[in-house]
């Protein structure tokens, strides 16, 4: 081998050095959070000893006086409840509920009873009128109908559960439109109530169910005592009996169907008269001259 021979190239390839890994950046140390500053408690003056105490204190630490709770949460709760009721009412029923407080701008809530709605009375005005009606002999009001009205007064036809059945005319009440007080009440040509005073109770102008039953029983006895064969007597229903009241005099009229000794059947009208609750006279109307 000559000295000038090329050097062996086997295993002489240069190797590429591996990339060196970059060193990881170290995270800066976490900063410690500064402690929260404690808020100073809200203070108030004790109304008893005037010492400055925490606002939420229920008892004064100085004088032990009980502290009144703020009414604001209660007020806000009540307002929220009213608003919720109104919203529910409008959504589901399409009308607002009556609020539990006086309405603004002079608006008033009218009572929903027969008397209140008929005369346009508030609950307070209705309560003020009821004693006068009770004194006049009215019980449960069943009908109120406006007859006329002007700036000063309004007139109404008024009935209760008894008068509507037994009176043959209307009771007229006159009401002051400003004060909503009862001024007068009349039945036909008779005064019932006038200028705050009872004249004659409405019960004097009709017989109620209990009174009619008493007169009915007495009339049946009077009729049977005058029949040839009383056990055959047949009387109509109570609705067919007519009662007339004039002062202290009561007249009862009806009919009776009976048989005579020959077996013949006849229907005869009759009239029985009472005065001050006592029997006075009896007559068959088909034999009157």
Describe this structure in words.
With 289 residues, this protein is an alpha+beta fold. Helices cover 21% and strands 26% of the residues. The chain is built from 5 helices and 12 strands. The strands form 3 sheets. The protein has a 6-stranded antiparallel beta sheet with strand order 3-4-5-6-7-8. Strands 9-10-11-12 form a 4-stranded antiparallel beta sheet, with helices on one face. A two-stranded antiparallel sheet has the order 1-2. A hairpin with a 2-residue loop joins strand 9 (242-246) and strand 10. The protein is elongated, with a radius of gyration of 49 Å. The chain starts with 42 loop residues before the first strand and ends in a 5-residue tail after the last strand. 11% of the residues are buried. Mean pLDDT is 82; it is low at 9-16.
Helix/strand layout:
Elements: E1 43-45, E2 52-54, H1 72-93, H2 114-119, H3 123-135, E3 141-149, E4 153-160, H4 163-166, E5 171-176, E6 182-187, E7 190-194, E8 197-198, H5 209-224, E9 242-246, E10 249-259, E11 265-275, E12 278-284
Antiparallel strand pairs: 1-2, 3-4, 4-5, 5-6, 6-7, 7-8, 9-10, 10-11, 11-12
Beta fraction: 25-35%
Number of strands: 12
Summarize the biggest pleated sheet: 6 strands, antiparallel
Instruction: Compute the number of helices.
Output: 5
The arrangement of helices and strands along the chain is EEHHHEEHEEEEHEEEE
- C-alpha geometry: elongated
Q: Distance N terminus to C terminus?
A: 187 Å
**What is the helix content?**
10-25%
Mean pLDDT: 82
Unreliable spans are 9-16
Q: In which order are the strands of the major sheet placed? A: 3-4-5-6-7-8
Report the structural category: alpha+beta
> What is the gyration radius calculated from CA atoms?
49 Å
């Amino acid at each position: 081998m000559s000295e000038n021979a090329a050097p062996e190239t086997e295993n002489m390839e240069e190797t590429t050095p591996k990339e060196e890994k970059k060193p990881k950046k170290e995270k800066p140390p976490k900063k410690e959070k500064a402690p929260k500053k404690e808020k100073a408690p809200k203070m108030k003056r004790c109304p008893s000893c005037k010492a400055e105490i925490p606002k939420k204190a229920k008892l004064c630490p100085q004088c032990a006086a009980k502290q009144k709770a703020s009414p604001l949460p209660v007020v806000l709760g009540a307002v929220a409840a009213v608003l919720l009721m109104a919203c529910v009412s409008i959504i589901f029923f399409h009308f607002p509920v009556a609020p539990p407080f006086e309405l603004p701008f002079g608006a008033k809530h009218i009572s929903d009873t027969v008397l209140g709605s008929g005369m346009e009375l508030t609950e307070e005005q209705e309560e003020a009128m009821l004693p006068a009606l009770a004194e006049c002999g009215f019980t449960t009001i069943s009908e109120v109908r406006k007859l006329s009205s002007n700036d000063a007064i309004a007139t109404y036809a008024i009935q209760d559960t008894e008068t509507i059945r037994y009176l043959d005319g209307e009771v007229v009440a006159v009401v002051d439109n400003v004060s909503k007080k009862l001024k007068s009440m009349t039945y036909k040509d008779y005064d019932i109530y006038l200028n705050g005073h009872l004249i004659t109770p409405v019960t004097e102008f009709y017989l109620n169910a209990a009174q009619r039953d008493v007169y009915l029983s007495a009339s049946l006895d009077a009729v049977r005592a005058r029949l040839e064969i009383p056990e055959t007597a047949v009387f109509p229903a109570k609705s067919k009996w007519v009662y007339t009241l004039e002062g202290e005099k009561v007249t009862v009229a009806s009919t009776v169907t009976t048989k005579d000794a020959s077996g013949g059947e006849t229907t005869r009208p009759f009239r029985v008269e009472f005065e001050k609750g006592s029997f006075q006279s009896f007559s068959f109307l088909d034999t009157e001259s």
